[in-house]
Amino acid sequence: MYTQASRSIFLIAGILAITLAGRTQPPGGGEKPEARIRQYWFVMLTAGPNRNQDSATAASIQQGHLANITRLYQEGKLKVAGPFGDDGNWKGLFIFDCPSRQEVEQLLRTDPAIAAGRLTFEIHPWWTMPTGSFVPGKPGQPLH
Fold first, then answer.
1. Are 126 and 13 contacting, i.e. CB atoms less than 8 angstroms apart?
2. What is the largest CA-CA distance in the chain?
3. How far apart are CA 77 and CA 24, in angstroms?
4. Contact 43, 94 (CB under 8 A)
5. How far apart are CA 135 and CA 116, in angstroms?
6. In sequence order, which residues have a C-beta less than 8 Å from that of residue 24 and are 6 or more positions away?
7. Which residues are registered as beta bridge partners of 128?
8. What is the CA radius of gyration of the chain?
9. Which uninterrupted H or E stretch holds 76?
10. Which of 38, 42, 69, 43 is nearest to 131 (CA)?
11. What are 47's strand-pairing partners?
12. Contact status, residue 79 vs residue 85, Cβ threshold 8 Å
């Protein structure tokens, strides 16, 4: 059965697909936006079974976790990363740009927080256009 995270992912992907499908011709001609949709990998980070480290060890693991995120971003593999702001079981998310699930799994295993059992993960294929950003304000470029 689908988890709440799975249902949310499918809902977001469905909304994006419906929105883009309604555009029959992008402004200025050219390729339709929906033709550029490609697969990425959505990773839900959840609380792992081993979260009882002392504060110094937990801080060291977190420092390694952040360094690993930076490395993966600089390699072009990790496109989005961030924690959730509440104290729920969901701890954070990643969006990877990799050709296979196996590569994503290998990269996740380089994360000290996952290796230490502080975090665990779920991997889901996720589709969107390779555009956009989280910079505040209106986008500088249209979707064509």
1. yes
2. 59
3. 32
4. yes
5. 33
6. 32
7. 38
8. 17
9. none
10. 38
11. 119
12. no
Q: What is the DSSP letter of 57?
A: H
Contact 34, 17 (CB under 8 A): yes
Sheet holding 90-96, edge to edge: 78-83, 90-96, 38-47, 119-128
Kindly state the DSSP code that residue 84 receives in the 8-state scheme. -
**Chain centroid to CA 32: how far?**
24
Cross-strand bridge partners of residue 121: 45
Contact 62, 113 (CB under 8 A): yes
Residue 136 tokens read as: 């505040």
Low-confidence ranges of the chain (pLDDT < 70): 1-31, 33-34, 133-136, 138-144
pLDDT in tens, 45-84: 999 999 999 999 999 999 999 999 999 999 999 999 999 9
For residue 127, give both structure tokens.
């589709």
Place of tokens 């079981």: 89
Distance, in Å, from the CA atom of 16 to the CA atom of 103, rounded to the nearest integer, reads 26
- Read off the amino acid at residue 80: V
pTM over 0.90: no
